[in-house]
Write a structure and sequence with these properties.
seven-stranded mixed β-sheet; TIM Barrel; Rossmann fold; 12% strand
Amino acid sequence: MSANPSHNIDDTIATVRYWVNVYLPGIPVNIVLCTTPIRPVPTSFPPVGTTSLLERLHQAGYSPYFFDIDGLRPDFETVVEFFRKQQPDILGISAVVSTAYRYVRDLTHAVRRVSPNTQIVLGGNLAASAEILLKKCPIDLCVVSEGERVIVNLVRHFERFGDFRPTKELNQILGISYLDRSGSLVFTGYEAPIPNEELPEPNYDLLEKFSDINRFITNPFDIPHFARDPRAYEPHRATQKTATVLTSKGCVARCTFCHRWDKGYRAVPVEKILSTIHHLKNRFNVGFFQIGDENFGSDKRQVDELVEALKPLDILFHVAGVRVFTVEKNPKIVGQLKAAGCTAMYFGMESGSPKMLEVMEKRATLEQNLSVIRKLNEEKMYTIVQLVLGMPGENRKTIQQTTEFVKLATEGMDELPNERISANLFQALPGTPGYEYMRRWGMVGTTLDSEEAYLLKISDVDAASSKHYQNCSEETTERAMLWQHQIIRDAIIHYYKRRGWTRLVESEAVLRGKIKDYARGGYFRIAKFKLFRFPFFWRFENLFRAPLYWVRLFNARVRLYGPLRALGLQIGLLQEENRSLYTIAEPESLREIVQFPAPETLTLTEAAMLPLRAGR
């Protein structure tokens, strides 16, 4: 007799379902794909991965339904009622960021309650936490990396067997993680990547059918770099909209804070990009394009061909994820892109400290970063200095180095530095060396429960907030909480000093580009207050630098520890936390610091999690 009688019952049910499918073919599989809220406020970036899966399923002969929870933002009761009525056979959840864990947990438990026979599949970067998802949530399996081939294989498996219970047949499907009958995690290995010509573009026709298209086809003048460019006000652009397209997938770098499923870098064929652009122009009157790549421009031949193809289209666009060495190798690219209609270029420079650039594995020097920023300023190409603060190894010296870098980077810009800086505290995401470093040191936790507690802590928190920050630096938490303010404050003071404390007279282009929220994804929101835009305020700040820092530090301590402990720390009756244990003495990549054990020394689950923890 089996040690677990329920296995015999499950096997019987599976057998019945199999023969039903054999003798009653043609019953359509009820498939629902859904997104999860990515940030507290929806963005205009389209759910490219989900629409790509929808296309693949349509091509394979299925008729899936798409519930764009992220774009539509229905209340949770409405979501639950939808699944109560829909009763899908398969629910595919796209969780592209690890900050979606709380919503995924709540959603999957609700779906299991109102639609108990639904097979729940989760994909996206959150799948790097497959063990937590499979053991803490009623999820049947996780899709790891690209899902286009995997989703079709899973639906065909369901048609044959009626569920995703662990079997030798399920184990033959690449790209998935699930629990076997003993409760151990299984990872079947990565599915082969799709070829370049099949790389997805956002499908706006599907978004118009299933979601609110106005979330994704938007007003270009809500975007600062478009609003600042004189070309945007040419009469023939008056009614044009903006949308997002992609020119590549993946990245040539492996930054230690960035989660990677896709190995390497693949460029979308130029003819496919142009087809998408022409369709958006003709169908939705789009004349402004956001190129939303993780890494634009690393294929020089593709960029040269694309630039020449874009010139006659008379469009405006911006590019993101540009690598510093792309401009270093080809300084003319800035002018070439501008001539083709580019209004902004964004780089992930992240730090002004040589040590932290090494910790992050940025593969760029401080001098190269400054050279590229100055090139953009010369060409009047809009950019923002993007920073990641508070990673392992960060300390007062590295923050001061970053402050000096930011001063130099922003002194030649035509508006106050606070409007050109995005300074976010490090967010440790599963599947990265940064997360593994924190897990090894116990800052995330060493148990499944503590890891889940961390995922709950970072859920539904904007990256610009400090609420998600788990201190892993060499300094105390209260001092780390002041770094964002300190860097931007010092940059503004330096900016005004160079101008003899005279008020900045902004150009017409800058004034036209002002929008309500000056932070634009960053932390500092001082520009809401007119007083903070006058030089005398910053002259006062500069004169009283030390006492004002003392006040801010005390306020941070009160928020963290309460007034009594804060006072004790402030006057020296209590000692600050000793952070020497977390010191990284020499510049070294976190990837080198984090050493994974040999698989043969681990349990089956731990060995199966190794590829997911290491990323690509």
